[in-house]
Amino acid sequence: MPSTTVTREVYYSQEQMYxxxxxxxxxxxxxxxxxxxxxxxxxxxxxxTDQVVRLGPVRHTFSTxxxxxxxxxxxxxxxxxxxxxxxxxxSFETAEDGxxxxxxxxxxxxxxxxxxxxxxxxxxxxxxxxxxAFETRARALYGPPGAESHA
Length: 151
Hints:
With about 150 residues, this protein is an alpha+beta fold. It has a domain at about 5-25 and about 65-140: 2-Layer Sandwich (Alpha-D-Glucose-1,6-Bisphosphate, Chain A, domain 4). Helix content is about 25%, strand content about 45%.
């Protein structure tokens, strides 16, 4: 099963970054390729999400289950086609400078090779772009990085 791990330190707090990633309904506004999201069956520590992604002419809908452990872990899983298995594991730790160390582990296996374009959403380059999108979103919501952004 292909696996990618990306770790990045950002100058926003653990709580701020956790909140941004947990707010899946806002993804279409700033995460590349995400077109629509609908959360259903929301509980305090989990939710099920229907997501629509688009890569060029290919549009795909799939469901995920998300487990929340505030403010440190968000785990997203799916076995909806085209995935045989799919897991995104976000972890958020307070960095020494008061910012946040984000680690994102992506693991997936596709059912059919023809769906490889969907797998490109989870490539190392795409994962880096996704984390950059969250950092850009943090800047838009919380202001420029600095001591005041760790509040």
